[in-house]
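Reviewers of the previous submission asked for a worked example of the structure-prediction workflow described in the proposal, so we include one complete record here. The input consisted solely of the amino acid sequence. No template or homolog information was supplied to the procedure at any stage.
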Amino acid sequence: MSLLAITRQREIIDRRRLSEQLSVLAEDTATPDRALVVVLLRDALDHGRAEIRSRFEGGGSAAHCVAEQCFLIDQLIRVLFDFVAEHVYPLANPTQGEKLAVVAVGGYGRGEMAPYSDVDLLFLLPYKQTPHTEQVVEYLLYLLWDLRLKVGHATRSVDECLRYAKADLTVRTGLLEARYIWGEQSLFGELKSRFDGEIVRGTAAQFVERKLAERDARHKRVGDSRYQLEPNVKEGKGGLRDLHTLFWLAKYIYRIDDVARLVELNVLSEEESQRFQRAQEFLWTVRCHLHFLAGRAEEHLTFDMQTRIGERMGYRAHAGSRGVERFMKHYFLVAKDVGDLTRIFCAIL
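From that input alone, the workflow returned the following structure tokens.
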């Protein structure tokens, strides 16, 4: 990583500095005051979010915005984990059963997080939970909740993860995108290896069929047309979730982490891969603006938001059409592109 990239990351959050501040706080009191810990963490989180928003609204890409949101939360969790392990519930010689890994799943695991998205976490254990790991997980969760983060979480052993993944498509999809954050890395390695060997291998056809059925049910639930007057950017037909579905299918079948790899595998053409990237960047840009303007996890592109986001994205009145009309025309063209890519990919499958 270049010095410039490191500097830009530290402008979002300086993990070493935050760790030192927490250590000083812990040394001053026998039992660290959680309220004081939260003050330090809240300052770091607010500063990081403000920096990310400033970069995005100053012309930065949505791809950088969603990746930087993940980086910010990653660093906070790493600091928290070390603080709890060293100062709150320290163990001189933890047994194998007291080891713990923190894993990102869902969109957070994929490395894409909108400004107010949930933080989806898996606390991974080697066996059943011990009193010590229960205390650590509980303390971590309370700190994250104190920061007013919306946290989706599960605490499971490797065996439990695999058992749930066999029975539940949502769990299987979440583990497909699982990403190591901190803690006992060998636990995560075991999970990924066994997931590939015991869950993925030989089940691609079943996964594709069930995932496409899930997509069709979602379309019916939110409106089975990509030309909704106030579309759902995330869940609607032609929205981000349809692109995610294509990515999940590709990852499950071809074991890739980047859609561009499908060009090397002669599954998609270079032009189709670029259409995917353009559609994703456009939809992520719209979604990030939605979250920032609403100040919460808003996914519906309402009439009011259409006007405001169209202006922010530079759509101006031209040749007899208003800026918002030009913006929504582009939106529906992108939604159509997503539908075309879905048909192309499904035809190949």
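The chain has 15 helices and four strands. We consider this example representative of the routine output the project will generate in years two and three.
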